[in-house]
Amino acid sequence: MNAANTDRLILRAVLAGAAILAASPLAAQVLGGKIDNDMSRCNAGKGPAVRVEITGLKSSAGNLFVRTYRAKDSDWLKSRRYLHRIDTTPRKGAMSVCVPLPAAGDYAIVVQHDANGNREKDFSSDGAGMSNNPEVKTFLGIPRAPDLAKTRFSAGSGITRIAIQVKYQS
Q: Cα(91)–Cα(169) distance, rounded to whole angstroms?
């Protein structure tokens, strides 16, 4: 086999591998992206998605961020390791968001109410909640994140419903 044939075989193998990767669901998945709260994605017959009922919101001021993580320790609460983030306007009391998922599987969701709208974590004024509503302990007034195992849930191929209660320090 000459060098030209070898180069062609290598090129074909690389292109075949790229085609397989491009066809996989992971290729379309960009971590840390922002999406809208499209409630129609949680209509009957749709999915996979999670309809999240959020309660405990102190006000309609600021921003509400809903981050979805794969249930992997290597991703859990790591910067830009969430699948996507829904940015929306909070509604005092309770509201719903629809979180689309790439596939059925295990996930964890975090809700953050940026009460003053500064896009920073202000532990004294912002509220937060997580899937399964685990207890969030503090050390010297700083919240300590619960283990992934306490927030993990399984989502099916249709619409999964969960409730998250937002809690505030003050």
A: 19
